[in-house]
Design goal:
The complex is a heterotrimer of chains A (about 300), B (about 280) and C (about 250). Chain A has about 300 residues and is mainly α. Chain A contains 12 helices and no strands. Helix content of chain A is about 70%, strand content about 0%. Chain C has about 250 residues and is of the alpha/beta class. The termini of chain C are far apart. Classes of the chains: A mainly alpha (about 300), B alpha/beta (about 280), C alpha/beta (about 250).
């Protein structure tokens, strides 16, 4: 039996095979969507660049060479050099690490937090719901970037604080989605059936409700990644994010602003990086939405 | 006279295992009579109704010949088809709650259905709506015309649907499970109503349902479908003498009011997978 | 736990939803091993009664007893071992992301019962499902197969009382026949008590011994199922329902 036949077997022999089969089908569906594949390739490219940055980058991202200031793109410096003579290509490559760090940490902090708060709020309803959603609404009612700015300013500039500030501003949206999903799931018969088996509330939330909210959460987080990168870049641009000499893309644009008319490449190159990675996340998110949407599942 | 003729109708949808024929070579003719199409879920009965009205959207595909009052439906443009839907062929769906527009009053919706096909002065329009609501046995038509769909019960909603579908005076009515969302005590009323209106207007009726005894009660002729094909067709009165094992199996599987059997006969689905 | 002569008893039960009373003064008793039907049209409150017994409709007053144990206002672990429920919609009563195996193992995990592997296999066999269905997801099953899984789940804890909420109304006639046969066989083999909610009188005739007819939140008549043979009902509403259902 080939691996493919094993994965697509209609009657799996074990839990592992059933789960692997499902994952394989989702992947196959995703591969059928060309934009999603482009998105996935961009994200994989970003991850590989971040991992292999020291091997890809021809020069050090922080090494100054004042004799080679502000050189235009050439065979030697693919993206030119900045005002301190640093190779922009190398800085963009190392910047991938910072971007990935921000994106990863924000997702790891805010998605589970929002998911849990939303699910608990929707599941119990009543005053639990009112209190939790009240807090959520307070956060939602303030503009994201301004809120992140305020937190970053209060916590002090720096990449870690920027991440925390962004995470604090993103979770309320996830809590709202998770709550809406939970409200539709809460009254379904399988939840009632499981309650009748004697399952505890925590078991119901963790094993039955959260797994059904995760797919819409994954989609939403992926689509939000672009916004997170832009917020991080914005904070960087305003000097509240990553501090020099860290090669953060937003901060790089900010520095390049002074030479934008004469040395356009200094600000433009990291700008391209931001656009491409943001687009990649958007494409992937759209593709995931088509594949993972619970409403489209189960239809044969 | 033949009202509708269906020849070798094939409706297919793409799946991961290639195209699947949901309706697979169905042929029948319909005069000004009441035809019941019966089958279980997945038999293709609803798809047949939708295919006649050309309501199958891509990637679904319809092949075969459909002619209505001598007109070839398959060659009609979408524009002509829209003019024909409602005006000459109408369809009643299963659940009135999903087929009525929630933000329009019942009266306006019925008017709307008429306005699309006929230009009438306002006063005549009102009168027609009133007459129609009376025809579907709504006692207080003026009050009901001002209600919103959520303010009417399921049975009343289905009457409104019927009024809406019949007001342009179509010559063929397709009713797809018109009563399965309703309570038993209302089901009879609604079906009798459809029945009376169909007779009075000399229309053709296609009643699509999963309920064999019910269809037998309200139709002249019955067409039994399974897996996209016609299994058997017979006069409703001769249903008890049905010859095909599938039809017999369906009849026997229904529990009876006077039930003495200890076990209900179960059909072996593999036995007529090929027929 | 010893056997009780009365499996389910309700006396003067009122049930409300969000403060609005939907069931008024319902009293009936179901003997152990009996199959009892609650019959009525939509909005009659029949499903609400079932939910109250299971603890899913918390706003009730009066007395509910299941196997001598007073009814609870929320689902309860001890009740779970004795009383289980099968729902109407086979598409909604199974978690879309859990395999049949996960669905059937869950009650055992919750109640810390061992030998899961063998028990799941046995449960599948009991409801007439082949072993190859064990690791399938619900979307890979037909409506009838899903309902078999739901019945198997309800039986995992070996309850004596089963609450059946329109267990076959969403199914095709031929599948309904299979599920009704299955329910009848399981009851015979295990001496189960059934309380079934339905609007379908012929199904009552096949599966039940007695029935209570509900209208607008009240029980209007309690009659033996044999009354369906000749329509010997006292109450005018029951007579109307009987006539509309094709009885004559």
């Amino acid at each position: 039996m080939t691996v493919q036949a094993w994965l697509l077997d209609d009657s799996p022999k074990s839990r592992g095979q059933a789960a692997a089969g499902r994952a394989y089908r989702v992947t196959l569906d995703l591969l059928r969507n060309p934009l999603a594949v482009v998105g996935a390739l961009i994200i994989i490219g970003l991850i590989l660049t971040a991992i292999f940055a020291p091997w890809i980058a021809p020069e050090s991202p922080v090494g100054q060479d004042l004799s080679n200031r502000l050189l235009p793109p050439s065979a030697e410096h693919w993206m030119g050099t900045d005002e301190l003579g640093r190779d922009i290509f190398s800085r963009v490559v190392y910047g991938a690490r910072i971007t990935l760090l921000i994106v990863g940490l924000v997702a790891v902090i805010s998605a589970p937090l929002g998911l849990l708060i939303g699910a608990v709020s929707g599941y119990f309803g009543g005053w639990t719901d009112r209190v939790l959603m009240g807090i959520t609404d307070v956060f939602l009612s303030m503009p994201k970037l301004i809120l992140a700015l305020a937190f970053a300013a209060a916590l002090g500039p720096g990449i870690e604080n920027a991440i925390i500030a962004i995470a604090i501003t993103t979770w309320p949206a996830y809590a709202r989605i998770a709550r809406a999903e939970t409200l539709t799931i809460r009254n379904s018969e399988f939840v009632a059936a499981t309650r009748l088996l004697g399952a505890s509330h925590s078991r119901l939330i963790a094993r039955h409700i959260l797994p059904l909210c995760t797919s819409s959460m994954i989609i939403r987080v992926t689509l939000d990644m672009a916004g997170i990168i832009l917020t991080a870049a914005g904070l960087g641009f305003l000097g509240l994010g990553a501090q020099p000499p860290l090669p953060e893309w937003g901060a790089m644009i900010s520095r390049g602003r002074s030479f934008i008319l004469d040395q356009w490449w200094v600000a433009t190159m990291p700008g391209f990086a931001i656009i491409i990675v943001s687009l990649g996340f958007c494409f992937l998110g759209d593709g995931l939405r088509d594949v993972l949407d619970p409403k489209s599942e189960g239809k044969s | 006279m033949t009202l509708l003729s269906v020849e070798n109708l094939v409706v297919s949808f793409p799946t991961s295992r290639g195209r699947v024929n949901v309706v697979d070579g169905l042929s029948f003719e319909l005069g000004r009579e009441r035809l019941g199409i019966v089958g279980e879920s997945g038999s293709g009965k609803s798809m047949t109704g939708r295919a006649i009205l050309r309501l199958i959207r891509p990637p679904g595909r319809v092949e075969g010949r459909l002619s209505f009052e001598g007109q070839d439906l398959t060659s009609l443009g979408e524009r002509d088809m829209r003019a024909l839907r409602g005006a000459r062929i109408s369809m009643i769906m299963q659940d009135p709650r999903y087929s009525l527009n929630p933000v329009m009053t019942v009266g306006t919706q019925i008017e709307e259905a008429l306005r699309v096909h006929e230009r009438l002065p306002r006063r005549d329009m009102r009168a027609r709506v009133r007459d129609m609501l009376e025809a579907v046995r709504i006692d207080d038509p003026d009050r009901v015309a001002r209600l919103y769909p959520h303010e009417v019960s399921g049975g009343m909603g289905q009457r409104v649907m019927i009024a809406m579908m019949l007001i342009p005076r179509p010559s063929l009515l397709i009713a797809d499970e018109p009563t399965s969302a309703l309570d038993v005590s209302v089901q009879g009323d609604v079906l009798r109503l459809i029945d009376d209106l169909v007779r009075d207007h000399g229309m053709g009726l296609i009643l699509i349902s999963h309920d064999l005894p019910l269809v037998a009660r309200y139709c002249d002729r019955i067409l039994v479908m399974n897996a996209g094909r016609m299994v058997e067709t017979c006069d409703a009165g001769d249903l008890h003498a049905a010859s095909h094992p599938y039809t017999k199996g369906l009849l026997a599987a229904v529990p009876r009011m006077h039930e003495t059997r200890d076990e209900l006969p179960v059909m072996d689905r593999s036995a007529w997978a090929g027929t | 736990m010893g056997r009780h002569m009365t499996a389910i008893s309700l006396s003067h039960v009122d049930i409300a939803y969000d403060g609005q009373r939907v069931v008024h003064d319902v009293s009936f008793e179901v003997a152990a091993g009996e199959s009892f039907a609650l019959v009525g049209e939509s909005g009659s409150g029949k499903s609400t009664v079932l939910k109250a017994i299971a603890g899913l409709a918390p706003e009730w007053t009066g007395q509910i007893e299941v196997l001598g144990q007073p009814g609870s206002h929320r689902p309860d672990r001890t009740l779970a071992r004795h009383c289980q429920m099968v729902f109407q919609d086979p598409y909604g009563s199974l978690h879309p992301r859990k395999t049949v195996d996960a669905v059937l193992s869950e009650p055992l995990t919750i109640h810390r019962i061992g030998g899961q592997d063998a028990r799941v296999e046995q449960a599948l066999a009991d409801v007439g499902l082949d072993r190859r269905f064990r690791f399938r997801y619900p979307h890979q099953l037909s409506g009838g197969q899903r309902q078999r899984v739901a019945i198997a789940r309800a039986l995992m804890l070996e309850p004596q009382v089963m609450l059946l909420d329109e267990p076959t109304s969403a199914l095709d006639v031929s599948v309904q026949a299979e599920i009704l046969n299955l329910l009848k066989r399981l009851r015979r083999e295990r001496g189960l008590t059934y309380l079934m909610v339905t609007h379908n009188l012929p199904v009552v005739s096949f599966l039940c011994e007695r029935m209570a007819v509900m209208n607008k939140g009240r029980i209007v008549e309690i009659a033996p199922a044999t009354a369906l043979h000749d329509g010997a009902f006292r109450d005018p509403y029951t007579q109307k329902l009987y006539a509309a259902s094709g009885g004559d």
